[in-house]
Every structure is written in structure tokens, then in C-alpha cells.
Amino acid sequence: MEFRRQHLLYFVTVAEVGNVTQAAEELHIAQPTLSQAIALLESDLGFPLLERHARGVKLTPEGEAFLVKARAASSAWTQAFAPAQALAQVRDDTIVFGFLGVPPGLDSPAPVEMFSRTYPDIDLRYRELSFPTLPTASWLAEVDVAVCHKPPLDPDVWTHSLRSEPRFVLAPRRHPLAERRELAVTELLDETFIGFHPSVERTWAGFWSLDDHRGTPPRHSTADRATNPQEVIASLTLRRAITTVPASVARSVSSVLPGVVAIPLRDAQPSMITLVGHKDCRNPRVAALLAFARKGINPTH
Amino acid sequence: MRYLVTIAEEGQVTAAARRLNVAQPALSQAITQLEAELGVELLERHHRGVKLTPAGAAFLLKARVALAAEADAVQTAEALARASRGEITIGFVGPPPAIITPEPFAALSESHPQAQVSFRDLPFPNGATQTWLAGVDVAFCHPPESEPGLSVQPVRTEPRAVVAQSSHRLAGREELAVEDVLDETFVSYHRDVQPRWAGFHSLDDHRGAIPAQTTNDHALTSLEMLGIISTSRGITTVPYADAKLAQQVLPHIAAIPLPDASPAVVSLIWRGDNQNPLIATLVSAVLSLGDLDGV
Questions:
Q1: Alpha-carbon span A233 to A257, nearest angstrom
Q2: CATH number of residue A229's parent domain
Q3: Does A300 map to a domain?
Q4: Is A180:A263 a contact under the CB 8 Å cutoff?
Q5: B21 touches chain A (CB under 8 A)
Q6: ipTM over 0.85 threshold
Q7: Contacts of B81 in chain A (CB under 8 A)
């Protein structure tokens, strides 16, 4: 089976926008061109992707199933081609270190300083990531390594567990639970949780809504589609909803934002803070970082 | 993309062009075009060849990730297309499964007379199991490496047999024990074959190590394996029914029961995200038969 690579991006855009005319505007192409491309893709694939309605388009069940994979492939290609400047800057003496929420050096500077002293010729650069999407390897495309709560396994990445951290509840100050000194999982299962964007890997997103304890997604979640920690925080300040975070994130958020409180969660499964990187990484400096982490003097704790 | 990979491997544009079977100027031009599109140099030109720049290496890494994601999208699309046409493709390793276990396939065509059932001969499991399953909806064999997202349904538990050339000194035996054969020369499996799969068939699970001696030739498919056995001292083990069938069909092959080896568990294996409803039909046909013990 063959189809044009470009058509994947077209299909993903139409599926996300829900309307061919608007999608064509976003892609800067003429609407008939887009319609034709989608029709061609459908004939290449051998099944219909869209149902056409008077007020827009809707995905067929096959279209829904294909969208997940088409999105992964198309975003991986975008990431491969887009950051030409970032590529141009890649040098042997640099490690690009991805993080979520709190920069590792800000949270606990000592190991990072020790690493820099041990390897003075390695230039550590930080890049903020959005929440993990599939496949994990393409989520990491912009960085050499990342530190975060354990992302989904992927044959193309390695992981190294650094430490486990208890989870905390984050709630807006005017939330009924905000006065509590400590909370238990059972008290929270029926609360309203902050919603994540559908592209965020489900098990990973679900962990923060306590799906691992409930066994299902929360009955109530907000209409938010958060893709990174800032968006979660922004939603928290607006809504009567909660989420959970690792202790280190809870500390820095509650010390910076007066409108948000962090409450220890007595009996939740801890978050596993993990170093994750590409298996076939050609950057020899990453090996030094991993060896440093394995010695137990991990650079983020 | 394939061009860039080949150049990186060969270290020379001329050698890469030869391997890719394209003209050298065309290859250089394609790379120049890619470099222009990206705005970075991908290759460093030296007097004795070329080398990836750090940016080229980084791009190659991302492009490989993208190619894998694209292959996964194609695999999913092909499965969706088969499902929408009422087709199911059943892969197998060894003899066609309907010869030895006809019941579930008969049940499938009886309950779904319109279904288009086709069979495909698969090489031994190699690489990631999910990728190995490309082109088929379900595979019928001793289970390959398990991975998250894979579903497995055992069909029959079956003793193993040694497969050897009919003039092999063990070929006349009524029956063999594992310790009689551990030190024999075994068929070598191709390096891409999953190590655990190859090891099971070479009795590594009993020996605790790989065989001391293996054939020079490496098998990637069942027929290659039989070819190597019929022309060498090498032996291997397979499910008893498969061995028996090979012996009936091929005059130079002998099958000798190996009752004390851990059994093979012939199973159906499929990707959990494959929504083809005929898979569920096949699985329930298997379940209704119960565990078929081997002959």
C-alpha cells in the first residue's frame, strides 16, 4: 500500500479541524485541492475516512482508527523536517536535556552542578517538552534525553529510573478540599479532574487523574485539553477541579502561585521519575550522562 | 531517506549509488535537494568519502523514527482495508495450519461463508513482533517475543520432535531424550531471527546456553531450515506434527520424537489494536475446541 506522505498531514488537519474549508485555510491550499487529496488518500487506502455532512465532516470508524497512526507519522515527519536550525546547532559537546514543568537544575541544582564540574566541556541545554505523545521516540525528537514521570515503553528508547516521588494534589485555593492537610485516594476518585489533550498518551495522562487507582478515567473532567504543565496550571486557577503531580512539582508550583495549594496524597502510587533517551543516539556525551546517573549521583536530584 | 541511510552506511556516494542501483549524480542531487529543504548540511565531504555531520546524524535519527511511524500507519491501514472488505489474512510458520489443525478454519468459513480467508507463509519471527506481523491479521505458530499490545491465544500444546537428515546417525532412533542431542550440531538461525525463538528451537532452554556447534548456513524460513537439514549434519526441533508432516513429504528428512523437551505451544498471535471482527470469530472457534493436545 502506498500513499503520499503529504496527504497524511492533510487528513490529520481535516480530522482535527472538523471542516474541510477551514482545514484548507490552515494548510494554505485551495479547498478543492484538499478535497481531491483526501479522496485520493481514501482510494489509496481502500476505505472511507470521512462522512460528509451539511455542517462539516465526521470521521468514519476506520478514519478514527487510522487517525491515531496518521497523527503519529505526520508529527514525526514534521519534527524531522521543521527544526532545521536546531539541527544546525547540534554539536558533539552539547546535550539537549528535555524536561516537563520544572527545569531539573532549578528543582535540585546540586547534581547538575556536580555533573558540570565533572564534565566541564559538556554544554547542557534545556528544552521544555509538552506531555508525552506516541511514539515516545518521536516525542523526544528534539532532545537527547529527558527527565519526567516514566513515559510509555518504546523499543527505540531506553529508560533509567532515578527516584520515586510521592504524589500531591494540586487544587485551586477556593476548592472545598483546599483546607485539608492531607488526603486519601478514595476521597478524590469522584472529584472533577483537569482534562488532557487527546494526543497525550492515555496511560500517562490517566496517572495524574488517578486512573491507576480507579481503573477507569474520572467520571468528571474539565473540557480543558492541556498539552503541558503551564496549561494545567492555567486551568487549575480557573476551575473547580484538581490534578495530581510529583512532590517536586508540587513544591515549586505552590511556592510560586498563591492561588494553588498542594496537599500530600497519603496512599497514592508514587510517581517514578525517570531519565529517558534514544537507543540509537549518536551523541557520545549522553553515555557520560547515563553513566553519571547510574552511579547514583543522578544529575536531577 | 533510504539514500541517506545507505550513504551513511557505505561512507561513499559512489558505493552507495552502486548498492542503490541509481546513477551517482542523481544520488548527489537528491541529497543536495534534501539539504536545501532542511537548510543544513547533512554530509561532510572528505577526499576519501563522506561522513554524516552531527546535524545529519540527528536528522537521520528523527527520520528513522518517522519512517517507523509511517510503516505502522501503513500496517494499520492495510488491516483496516482488509477488515472493510471482509477479509482476513492468516500468517503461519511451518506447514499451512489448516493441514494439521483444520477445525477452527472450517468453523470460520462455516459461520462466515462470505469471508475471504487467505494464508501467508511467514519467515521466522524477526525484529519487533508487531512489525513482523505486517501484512497479516493473525499469525499461527509457537509464540514469538511478547510485546505490550500483542494478544496471544494458545491453540494446542504439542511435544517436540528432532528434525534431522534421514542419514543422520540419530535418524533411526525410535525416540530421543534431550540429553542425547544437546551436544549435536544445530541449524543456525539468521541473525535477524528473534534470539528467544531461535533458542527455543535449538534447545537453549534446556541447555542454558546456545549450541556449541551450528551450521554455517543461516535459516530465515522453514523451507531454508529444511534445506539446510537435508544437506548437512545440522538438526533442530519443531512441534511434533510439523516434523511428522515434513518426514512424510520430504524423503531426506527424519522426525524423531523428543518427549522430554518442553512442549511447543502453537498459538494465534495478533495485534490488540487490530479490530478485524474475523479475528474474534477465529479465536472463539479455537476456544470452543478446547486445548487440542498434540497427536
A1: 9
A2: 3.40.190.290
A3: no
A4: yes
A5: no
A6: no
A7: 1, 45-47
